[in-house]
Amino acid sequence: MSKKNGLILLLLLIFLLVVVVLSSCIGAVRISFSELMSMFSYYTGLSNTARFQDQQAAVFLNIRLPRVVLGLLVGAALGVSGAVIQGLFRNPLAEPGLIGISAGATLFAVMMIVLELNFFRALLGALGAYALSIAAFIGAGLTTLIVYRIGMKNGKTNITSVLLAGIAINALAYSFIGLLTYMSTEAQLRNIVFWNLGSLGGASWTMVSTLLPFVLVPVLVLPFMAKALNAFALGEAQALHMGINIKRVKFLVIILATMAVGASVAVAGVIGFIGLIIPHILRMAFGADHRLIIPGSALLGAALLCLADLVARTLVAPAELPIGILTAIIGTPVFIYIIISERNKRHIP
Amino acid sequence: MIKVRNLQYKVGTRKLVDDLSFEVKSGELLAVLGANGAGKSTLMKLLCREIQPSAGHILLHGVDLDSYKLAELARTRAVLSQHNTLSVSFVVEELVMMGRYPHFDQRPQEQDLKIVQQVMEETGILHLAGRDYNTLSGGEQQRVQLSRVLAQIYDTQKACLLLDEPTNGLDLLYQQQIMELARSLADRGFCVVCILHDINFASRFADKILMLKEGKKVAYGHPIEVISCENIHETFSIKVKLMPCEGYSCPLVVPATVGS
Questions:
Q1: Nearest CB to B87 within list A233, A289, A291
Q2: B55-104, pLDDT tens digit by residue?
Q3: Domain that holds residue B126
Q4: ipTM over the 0.90 cut-off
Q5: CATH number of the structural domain A70-346
Q6: Are A271 and A105 in contact (CB under 8 A)?
Q7: Which residues from chain A sit within 8 angstroms of residue B78, using beta carbons?
Q8: pLDDT tens figures, B180-193
Q9: Chain B residues lying within 8 Å of A237, measured CB to CB
Q10: Is B218 helix (H, G, I), strand (E, B) or coil?
Q11: Contact A348 B98 (CB under 8 A)
Q12: Nearest C-alpha of chain A: how many angstroms from B225?
């Protein structure tokens, strides 16, 4: 059983590496595979000869590689959070957006863009270009906290209440976003739209290093929740009977998922469907064991988002498609296909 | 063994479980009977520490239930709940392996794999091992769940097994099989508490019966002492007749016809 899982994870990792090489080579400045390998061995000190042009290296190191890495991080964050949130809420339709993480992040980012309040100005002064990301992250954290508190009674979290509270808070946040959009000037509006559609453009190493801990911690810690989330599939009471500390699992999963998704929405805007679809694809292909689904979603999410970004920046080159639109256009038909095939599967006795 | 002393559970001023005391020794099967809303399920939740009593104590092997660590408790007692739906589907073998979760950290040990096989054989679901749980019939699903629960305490001496209406929604054959299995587990030294609706099943398989009404004890003791027209009328508000049955010490309970 675990040997099979190991093999699948290895295959996913190989797929991820292929995508990374493809994304590194293809773009406005072409880099051949041998040039890429030469760059790799030159910069890691394995070789002294540089069989590539300086311009290629400059583009690769300063523009393309940070973008690829950012894509990997955001994809892994969305994939892994989707997997654990679906497991925790015992609902295969749940996704991080459902409990208000994305809405909260968006609301705060839009507030920052439109309102130019003193608080935000101070933030902007202190943090410069990161202010928007930090504001979005605070927004994600706050809404999740509110949703979580509403869903809690006598120290127990009621999952259904959390979901319903998530829907309510989402609606509220989006109505405020609508109001702010209505108030905004033309320049602000463009900024909002761009942010709302999601993009990995403008990726830099500083963005990567800001995001890294927020993604790395959840990706490394969440696989240890696999057994607990398997038990959750039976029900919360059943998980408790099996000796699972359900309070701690709920707390950790929600905090870590917020951390990963909040931070990635903060740097890349709203990128939908990855968190929803990746775990589904894996479950359909290999079964529901979270010991595979959680790390697998991180790998496949990273690979697919990177691939989507490759398409987004090459399809209409030299222009770029917003990646959020692309993931939705590809994701929705895939999702509909999943719904139909799952429905058909249930009818087989 | 389970010892319950003056157990009480209140919601507001309503007492859902009121001053219950009883004990279940190792090797005993206790059947809990009562009408809907009599407090059976609340009692079950108290026994498996899902909720905390308002007053009174539950002792498991002489130690207060509260002082057990979660994992330790899971290795000592297993619970079969009434509703078992899976949010995502698992293969039967994986599901039974979940019963072993309290016993291993990340990877199942050889002992765990062995027990899973043994349990599946014992409950007669070995041929279902590779099947998708959600495609099984209700009876098969219930047996898979029972295997999972059994796997959890299979190698524990004098473990406790709590069954909440294990025969619900099953046909007669499966009901009989599940009860026979519960009986054999008790005979093996487990201490089994089982909520039932069928009085005849209770008297046939249980060592002791506890009858509840509005959270209070109506009767408690050996089936032959407890099964009487008065007790059953008090518990279920129905009129019944007792009929002696060949080969059993305890009479059968049948509904009294209207006008008799």
A1: A233
A2: 999 999 999 999 999 999 999 999 998 878 888 889 999 999 999 999 98
A3: 86-156
A4: no
A5: 1.10.3470.10
A6: no
A7: 241
A8: 999 999 999 999 99
A9: 50, 81
A10: strand
A11: no
A12: 33
